[in-house]
Amino acid sequence: MTGALSHIRVLDLTRVLAGPWSGQLLGDLGADIIKVERPGSGDDTRGWGPPYLKDINGEERPDAAYFGCTNRNKQSVTIDITSKEGQALIRDLVAQSDIVIENYKVGGLKKYGLDYDSLKEVKPDIIYCSITGFGQTGPDASKAGYDFMIQGMGGLMSVTGQPEGSPGGEPLKVGVALADVMTGLYSTIGILAALAYRDETGEGQYIDMALLDVQVAALANQATNYLVSGKAPTHMGNAHPNLVPYQTFPTSDAHFILAVGNDNQFAKFCKIAGLDDLPGDVRFDTNRHRVENREILAAKITAVTADKSLDYWMEELGKAGVPCGPINSIDRVFEEPQVKHRGMAIEIEAKDGSMQPGVACPIKLAKTPAAYKSAPPELGEHTAAVLKRLLGKSDQDLKSLSEKNIITL
Questions:
Q1: Is residue 310 over pLDDT 80?
Q2: Distance CA 237, CA 171 (A)
Q3: Active-site position among 180, 213, 253, 307
Q4: What are 114-124's pLDDT values in tens digits?
Q5: Is the peptide bond before 163 cis (omega within 30 degrees of 0)?
């Protein structure tokens, strides 16, 4: 075995981010991932640049860095699924697969005979995961859903951004397509649960994943805060609705994050900051009281932290075990000693010998670690090899399919 899922094959009919994120994670864990793309154009994100990936000579490839973030460990096969022969190829590949992941609009694959009900006739124990913006049922099921929309509709933007009425106080989206990424992660969890069930019963199943469902679930404490209190949270900048002090504070040369999680940590911080009277002050002696008096406390802390440098606070608070950290730009993230130690920046060799950069899988399995077998593929790079290996197609078969524009070689 070369990975925990090395016995599993996935037919990846997805594009953009949520579905490909799930497919890449399964591939990192050892699964054989066959990514089916449109002949000629492929996954939309191949063109979402600049920047673009580089070839062995340092020249731009046709594929954007965006595509590279979520398509390693995959084999690219081009098939025109709108054609009868293309649909037959997909069904034949399904017969050789364990999992299908797709993110077409609701009903989009049914007209091609590639929906779950049709494909379970081909492979009764198939696990079929559909990812859409709003799910397979409900008044919005037929609508297209994109991450930005979902961050807004799902409440994330309402709790992100500077406080209302302050400069820049409008709601903001998160700087990463987080609803897509989380949906990819939840989809992977669902797929692994379905695999465990199939191992026990021999039965496959259908998985209905919706970006909106995931975003609502991921509201976490903000959702339960509302459900318990009846009061909708709002955007508070970098402050926390339930913990104080838990926000950014200025230093003499930068800002830093102070993340106090309990009274003991607060007392340690106050000792270092020369604010020894605060832990005994009834306004600040417990987290509940600090939340009730957050503005007064924040002003007192700001007056002290602004007098010394970022390095001073990182060193002194770090030695005392008070949770704190710098606010890194992404270039500095990859220079962090801890990030380097954990091997989070990787390179994978492409077929032309170029080294393609990427970010490591964060799952550290002791016996079956994640592996990086192949760089993000060129469009159709594996069409011939996969159709020969799995379906027994001859060179003449492939030539005929190519001449009909069913595949591209």
A1: yes
A2: 10
A3: 180
A4: 999 999 999 99
A5: no
Three-state DSSP class for 344?
coil
Rounded to 10 degrees, the C-alpha dihedral 96/97/101/104 comes to: 10
Instruction: Supply 57's token pair.
Output: 């000579």
Return phi, psi of residue 241, to 5°: -70, -25
Place of tokens 């949520």: 18
Extended strands (E) in 172-266: 205-210, 246-250, 255-259
Structural domains of the chain sorted by starting position, each given as residue range(s) with its CATH number in brackets: 9-217+341-403 (3.40.50.10540), 246-250+255-326 (3.30.1540.10)
Q: Are 409 and 383 in contact (CB under 8 A)?
A: yes
| pLDDT tens figures, 261-278 | 999 999 999 999 999 999
Q: Which residues pair with 399 in a beta bridge?
A: none
Structure tokens at 106: 């609701």
CA angle 26, 147, 24 (to 5 degrees): 15
* Distance between CA atoms of residues 278 and 266, nearest Å: 9
Over range 131-152, report the average pLDDT: 96
Residue 2 banded pLDDT, cuts 50, 70, 90 = confident
In the predicted model, is pLDDT for residue 164 greater than 90? no
| Mean pLDDT, residues 398-407 | 96
User: What are the respective helix, strand and coil percentages of the chain, to the nearest 5?
Assistant: 40, 15, 45
Instruction: Say if CB 134 and CB 149 are below 8 A apart.
Output: no
Full-model pTM? 0.93
**Selection from 253, 256, 264, 234 nearest residue 301 by Cα:** 256
Q: In the block, which residue shows the tokens 């994640």?
A: 370
CB 179 within 8 A of CB 156: yes
Q: Mark whether 180 is an active-site residue.
A: yes
- Contact predicate 143/134, CB 8 Å: yes
Q: How many CA atoms lie within 13 A of 386 on its CB side?
A: 28
366-401 pLDDT tens trace: 999 999 999 999 999 999 999 999 999 999 999 999
At 236-246, the pLDDT tens digits run 999 999 999 99
DSSP letter at 189 equals H
Cα distances (angstroms) measured from residue 403 to each of 159, 301, 331, 382, 397: 54, 72, 47, 17, 10
φ, ψ dihedrals at 337, nearest 5° = -55, -40
